[in-house]
Each structure stands twice: as structure tokens, then as C-alpha cells.
What does this fold into?
Amino acid sequence: MNFSISLTINGARRNVELDDPRTTLLDLLRERLDLTGTKKGCDRGQCGACTVIVDGRRINSCLALALSLDGADVRTIEGVAQAGRLHPVQEAFIAHDGLQCGFCTPGQIMSAIGLIQEGQAGDDPERVREGMSGNLCRCGAYQGITAAVLTAQKALAAASRKEVA
Amino acid sequence: MPDIALTRAPAHVRHGSNIGQPLTRRDGVLKVTGAAKYAADQHPAGMLHAVLAVSSIARGRVAFLDVAAAKAHPGVVEVITPANRPTLAQDPDEKSDPFMFRLDLLQSDRVRYANQPIAVVIAETLEAATEGAAQLAPRYEVEPARVGLDAAESFVPPAVGVGNPAQVTRGDVEAGLAASTRKTAETYETPAQFHNPMEPHAIVAAWDGDTLSIDTPSQGLAVAQARLAGLFGIPPDNIHIRSPFLGGGFGCKGFISGPQILGAIAARAVGRPVKLVLRREQMFGPVGHRAPTRQTLRLGADQDGNLLALDHHTKTISSTFDDFFEPASDASHTLYGSAAIATSHEAVRGDIGTPLFMRAPGEATGSVALESAIDEMAQACGMDPLAFRLKNYAEVEPISGRPFSSKALRECYRQGAERFGWARRPLAPRQMRDAEGLLVGWGVGTATFPALMFAGNARAVLRRDGSGVMEIGAHDMGQGAWTALAQIAADALGLDIDQLEFRSGTSDLPDAGIAGGSAHTATAGMAIHNAGADVIARLANLATNDQRSPLFGAGNAGVIARDGRLLRRDDESRSERYADILGRAGLAQIEGHGTGAADAAAQADYAMHAHGAVFAEVKVDPDLGQMRATRVVGAFAAGRIINPRMVQSQLQGGMIWGVSFALHEQAVIDPRSGRPMNANLAEYHIPVNADVPSLEAILVEERDPHVNALGIKGVGEIGITGTAGAVANAVWHATGIRVRKFPITIDRLIEPR
It folds into this structure.
């Protein structure tokens, strides 16, 4: 039997006919909706490669059953750049070389966007490191990742100050 | 034939515009937008999902699999077991060369290690295949597992690592020890470690008759192609492998693994494309690991701290069915000058998957023991550990007596120590505390890794529109091949990098050799360099023999290629655009080929190694034993640096592996069952961002005229060596406790002694 759910994915409403209640959000994105930017590193919520933002919060999409997310707003790496323009976090990852093999990178970037939105870390590198520690990087690009989050945080804060003014 | 001065010109005459620039990654936008397609991101039409069932015992045989239950699960299409596995052209246990590792491809019901594949379930969906595999509910005839370094009688392996002799001696170690006034003899243990790239091994395979099309991560496309050709009995050219991006390799994707091949077998069995991705826990068995070691180091020194004897013995373990012996003792061949050196290895066989090359195989394992032992001897001599290392600085390679092709290690020590502030280090341990009362310790370690080269080929094309193409089947596992090799290619062709089309990462391109041994940039880089020189020489030949060209007759003087033009070497005002030369000759394009390989004569005359000095600060909670490597500074000399941005990233990554080796990483194998007990990323600890707050890699300038024409040594692995020892030595300096079993864990610092 099929299960109908409705999701907003990267701003577009999608009605999804789920053929299997066991399907995780991660497998739905990767295997059924052709959104393969989100990666599977462990399938147990231990590595963070599958991080996406659901209803404004970063989650491990491998631990979320798609069926339980009816009506949710999902943002994935594919929805971060707007109109061909990279997001400040993406730009900063390239500038600071916050990646090597790139496999954890989509998860790192979604986590960074979530962290900045949460306003938890501000410009304190130690808190950025802590807040990014749910995302493993085996290549060891952590110095660049931390620098990138701080740079992007600054750029986004400046942009929002401008907006307010 | 005109004199083609170009090919022999020192690289720096033509190069310089692209090499050395800190370009950002050329694949960066693809990777930060999620558009970079890794193997498991492929989804051809009609594709099925395959899931492995793996053994939960380490030794015995599979007595029963409930194939009927698996097949009855909705969506399951096929179950492959040893009973119905399609025949192969070659026995997976055949071994015709030392680097053809035996594979588990369902050839029998025998189980020889935990997590060995025992069946493949293929289904319409991943969920159905996963449940089908669970339904198999295997029953076993279990035999007692042989686990660990004391599993069995030991023996001296015929060779260790890549065909190195198991025992090497220079001078008389026993006489040296007898003459020594200071002696140390200690034993160090290192655990089994698993590569764990973030991307699990994955394959998407599709057959069309006898033609096989594959997406799979590979550090060695040509070797994988040959292995598959042998097993399936088809010509290598019938196999097309795409591996544009690896989600990390670290050695476990150097040779195509059994599970990847099972994906291709599954696709053939069902006549549809199949995707097979390893689950994380399945990576603790069939895809290699770093073997555990027990190393005994005996050192002797005279009154003044001169090393007189260095004896390094390693005991390690391989599988029951294949040979790979971690060459840990070889780390003592190159680092410290000692009048006498002996290195030796012994091994046992146990019920574990065959160990393999893992980032700095032998060097990482041996270095952490050697650097600890050197520190212990410095302490015995009452000397500063850095002063002791400088006192025993090897002016020539100790084990061979050969001069070094280049060695800027003194400068590494100097720059690293200065940056770190080493001069303020108190000699005795347990002297420093921070504002919060944490114990602070400082340690040093020396880094080294051989400058190797394999054989590789490249094809270069210059086109009439002034652009160029460089083709090479190279591998980007994160080190930055897409960027660094393109930089070399642009200089080789005398073009701006934007005028270059760089093709890489597929098996139909010229074989670039394996991406391993920190040798890929040197090997592929030299192939590219020579292919560029070849095509430029052909172009120059056209011009200098053509009376209409301003370069006519310049053959003897030679020409220089720069910015899409050939210029007369002795008169740069006379030049011509590539496009004009080709246009006048009526050619759409011109092609050249190049090979990169080690220079055997230079290798015989010189010892070739990269070097580095790593300084680490560790803070330890005096009550709880909690540790953190709070600051690590490494200074490395590795010949010519193609892209400093990417090299720093690679060195920092290696240093994090060193921190991990010292403080985090270990596979815990159940001594009763032989199963890894922490086969997941929560319990198999690798550093997270908060574990490595401050890292710095200094690039020390070094020119090496002997390693290769480009002067490249390689930086992929050296960061681990030195760092692990520096961290261990810092823990001692903070606490006064010398831990000789890695990783250093809290219990070892707080247990009553």
C-alpha cells in the first residue's frame, strides 16, 4: 500500500507517494527524489553526512522516517545556492578549503547554516567547533571548516544589519 | 631533427605561472552544492539495490541461510549465495602477484573473518533488500577464533609492506648496546585501525553483453580494471570505470574490494543495473585495515647522547589466507643516525580480514613507537628531546649510507620550534599548568615519508583554437588532483589554466598509476609534464622547420612555451601563437604523450624522503585524565609545493590522523568471538572538530634536483608520522606518565600505579 505525504523541499511543495513505510527521509531524498547531494555515511546518526534542515532545525535525515514528516519544510544542499549564486557558507567553504574529498561537505554546510541560524556560536571559535562536532570529516578539514563558519557568520550578520538599516 | 631543448629544460624555466599558486579547488563549487556525483549517487534506469549479508562469526562455516524467507519478502528479486553464485573465470583465491589480494566472492561456505560477505540480496528497493538480508538469519558451525598478536605461533614473514626485507641490519647492535652507558628497552603496542573514509565502498554496475560499466570509487583504476577483467574473463577494454570523486580513500580503495566486485556479479546475475553500498559496520572486515603491532625498541647511547645502537622489532598479524605485514620497524631505517641499526619483524595469522595499506602503512605505526623511544632515551640522557634529535641528526640515510636527495629537516625543526615556542619548555615533566589548573605538556616528533613514484601516462593535445587538453586517469580522493594536476598541465602546455581542458577520473584515459604512497602528484605530475613537453616539442618542430614562421631555424637555440605562444629562447621578441602554427600547418590539433616514472639511477644514488618536525601541546585534567591536543604545529619539507592551499589541508588532515592515532582510534576485537565490538562511528573514535582546536602546517622551502624534474616529493601521509609521537610525548611531559599502549586513554592516566 502507498502512503501519501506532502513535503516542501527547497521551497517547492512535493506530494510524495511513499511505497514503503520504512523509508527514511535520507533514502527518500537520495533514491526516490534524485536529490543525491545529501550523503549517507553511517545510516545511524553518528556521522552527520546526511544533515538537512527540517522546519528550521538541523537533523540527521537517516534517523527520520519520511512518513513522520508529512507537512514538513525540508531544506537540502541543493536548495542552498540561490539563482546560481553560492550561499555565503558555500563561498567560505571554498575560500578556506573547508573540504577535501567533499563527501561530508553537504552535511557540514547544512549544519553550519543551522548553527548560524540558531545563533548559538556567534564568533567564538570554540563554540563553533563544539557546534560542528556532530559532523565527522575523516580527511580532517576541521581548521578550514571552523574558519569558514566564522567568516560566513560574519558575512551574514553584516548582511542582516544592512537589511535592518 | 631540431634540438628540442624544451624537454630537458629545468622545470622552472617554463613553469611558474600556475604551479605554486594557492588556487581554490576546481571541483569546489560542485562539492559545496551537492552536485559532485559520487558512485552511490548514480541511479540508472531499471536499477536494483543489492545488500550484503555478512558473517557474524570469525571462523567456521555457514550451515544454513533461509533463502526462502528472504525471497519471500516483497520486492526481493534474487539471493546469491555460494550455492548459486555465477561462475567466474578465475578463482578469487588465486594469487599471481603479491598485490593481487585474495577476495571473498562467495566461493565457498567457509568463514575466515567477521563481516565476511556470505550472501547478496537483490531487490527493487533498498528497504526490501535490507530486510531480505536480515531474513537470511544464518546459522553457523562455529570454530574457535584465533584473535590478536598471541593468536598462534609466530614466524618471520618472507617480506613486509611492499616487498621489503623483514630483517635488516647495519653494524653490530649488540656490540653497540654493550658499549652504551645509557640503555632503554621498552615495548609499545598499537591497535587495529580501520580506514573509515566517510564514503563507504559503493558500486553501481551495469552489463551490456560482455561489457561492464561501473561507477565506483577507486585509487587505482587500471589495477581495478585488470582485476575485474581476470575474474570475469573479459578484456580490460570492455570495462569502463568512472571514479571522478572518491569520498576518501586512505588506502582502502587502492585495490577493488570483494564487496564492490559482488555488486558487479549481482548485476550480471539479474541482468539489470545494480547498486551495492556497504553499510558502515560492513567496512570492518572485507576492505582492509591497519594491523595491530607490538614493537620492542632497544636503544643505546653514550655519555654525550650519541646513539650507538637502535634495535626495532615488530610483531604483527595477517589473515589466515593472505599476506600483508605492517612494516613498522622500517621507520627506524631513515630517521636517526645510529652506529648500529637492526630492524626485524615477526608475524602470526589470525581470523581477521587481510590487513592492507592504510595511510602511512608502517611509517605511522613504527613512527609512534620510535618517537616515544627516542624521547625516553633523551630523558635517560637528561637532554631536551629536540636537542637529542638534533644531536642524532642523520646526515646520510642511516640504514643505507646513501646521501639524501634533499633534507631540510634542520630548517623544519627550527621553524617549527620557533613558531611553537619550544625554547620555553621545562625539561622535567608535570611542570606546567594553565589558568584552569589543567596539566600542560609539550612534545616533539620527527616526521618522515619516502618520496616514491609509480608509473603513469598522460596524453596532451593542443588545438587550433589555442586551447589545450590534458588526459590522465588520475584519482582525486580529496587531495586536490583536479586542481594540482591541472596546474601542472597548464604549465606543461604553456597555457593559462582557463585555456586547459583537464580530463581525469575514468578508466578509458591513460593509466595514472595508483593514488597511494604519497606518489600520485609526482607520478601523474611527471607524466603530464612530459606529455606537455612532447606536444610542445612537436609543435616547435613544425614552427622551427617552417620558413614562414618567425621561429624558423630556432631549433638549436630552443624555444620556450608561455601563454599560448612559442618564444625563441635567445630572443623572446621572436614568437608565434600555437594557433597560428597549427593553422598554417593545416592541423586541427597536435598530440603528445608522456610517462612519469622514478629515475632508477637517481634512486640508487640517493635516499629520497620528505621530512618534518611536529610540536604538540596537550592539556590533561589532573583528576579526570581527560586529554586534548590543544595546539599542534608541524613544519614540513616535501620538495616543490604545487598548491600550498591544498598541501596545507592535506598536511593538517594527516596531523589530525596523528592526533587520532595517539589519543582516539582503535578497533576493539572481542577475544572470544573475533568480532570487532565497535564497528560504528560512535564507538570507533575519530577526532571531531572540537578535538583539534589548533593546527598549523608550515611549508618549509626545499628544492630537490633528484626526485624528479618537478622536484615533487608528496605530502599525503607524512602528517601522521611525527604527530602521533609528538602527542604521546606531550602527554608524558604533562603528566610524567609514559603510556606505551595506543591510543592513550583516560584509564591509563588515572589508574593507581
